[in-house]
Amino acid sequence: MPSSTINNSKSLPFALSIGEPSGIGPEIILKSWAERSEQKLPDFFVVGSEQIMLKTAQKIGLDIPLQKITTPMQVSTIFQNALPVLDIERDADFEFGNPSTLTAALTIGAIEQSVKMVFDGKAAGLVTAPIQKAALYEAGFTSPGHTEFLAELCKKRTSAAEMPVMMLVADGLRVVPLTIHITITEVAKSISPDIIRWTCEKVNTALIEDFGIEKPRIAVAGLNPHAGEDGTIGNEEQLIIGPALDRLRDQGMNIMGPLPADTMFHGAARVKYDAALCMYHDQALIPIKTLDFEGGVNVTVGLPIVRTSPDHGTALDIAGQNLANPNSMINALRMAEQIYKNRMISHV
User: Fold this and answer.
1) CATH domain 172-287 topology
2) What is the pLDDT of residues 109-128, one digit of tens each?
């Protein structure tokens, strides 16, 4: 069960891992700090490299004061006047738009150090800037992705850590893809009653503890067009999805579905549920990115720490050009604070 009661100080800042230096991560961090007062953002500090943050600020013409720190406890006295940076002293030589294995140790080290500080009670939670997985793989990174790596780090710290679930949030919509980065030909073979039930249970718990929804409503999409249309366009809904949802309803959960995915996301439909479980990646991400492409937030459900992230990648094509929109990072910081506070209330 997720819990951010690893620390219980309401004044703790959030750790913000620097992500891929050659992408837009450092830029949207700087821009988020510049809007900290207007956006009423919680205190945060960067885990990574003062050199990278300074080079980025100079490149895009932002006069952002930086302050190197040695402990997050300094953040509250610095944050309003300078962006605090905890420098982990790794190779920081980079080029905008050109990822390199040279900074892989910095990117990975920033994530590791951020997680450690949350477990050590020095940070309220973690907000991660985007990473470029190809460069990390080339440097020997073995985790399938960012979220899986965080799960591994948490498992080393607590036996309560379980495999997390990815939730995307934007403009009043929450979506969860049941399967993520696999081919369409593999999707049907990867769906099972156990995975559906397990994911719905995690989502239900997160809606209660992280979002403060007392009686969550979860809508579940079918796999096939028109949710199979009574078995005439596929039978996964009848053989796999439907029976799994029946068992969840027997447990007392408010579950709708399986529903035709093409009628789940218009305005009148969205008000009927608190989260939508979709069967594959694009079924979930297309509606949320259509609603709010630049403001969505990736929330990791099921970790014992709070973790949010912008719902976009490194955007190498615009790195260093002062074109990056910080809205998703700003929303990720706000949501991290909201989830942290909700978890504190739910565990009182």
Assistant:
1) Isopropylmalate Dehydrogenase (3.40.718)
2) 999 999 999 999 999 999 99
Please check whether residue 330 is in contact with residue 32, taking contact to mean a CB–CB distance below 8 angstroms.
yes
State pLDDT tens for residues 298-314: 999 989 999 999 999 99
Evaluate whether 14-160 and 172-287 have a shared fold: yes
Cα–Cα distance measured from residue 80 to residue 115, given in angstroms and rounded to the nearest whole number = 24
Query: SS3 for 272?
Result: coil
Which amino acid makes up residue 163? M
The encoded tokens of residue 10 equal: 């309401």
* Nearest alpha-carbon partner for 45 in 305, 53, 37: 53
Query: 19-34, pLDDT tens digit by residue?
Result: 999 999 999 999 999 9
CA–CA dist 129, 12 (Å, integer): 19
pTM for the predicted model, two decimal places? 0.91
| The pair of three-digit structure tokens given for residue 18, joined into one six-digit string | 């620097």
- Cα–Cα distance list, 193 to 47, 198, 211, 257 (Å): 40, 8, 26, 14
The SS3 call for residue 78 is helix
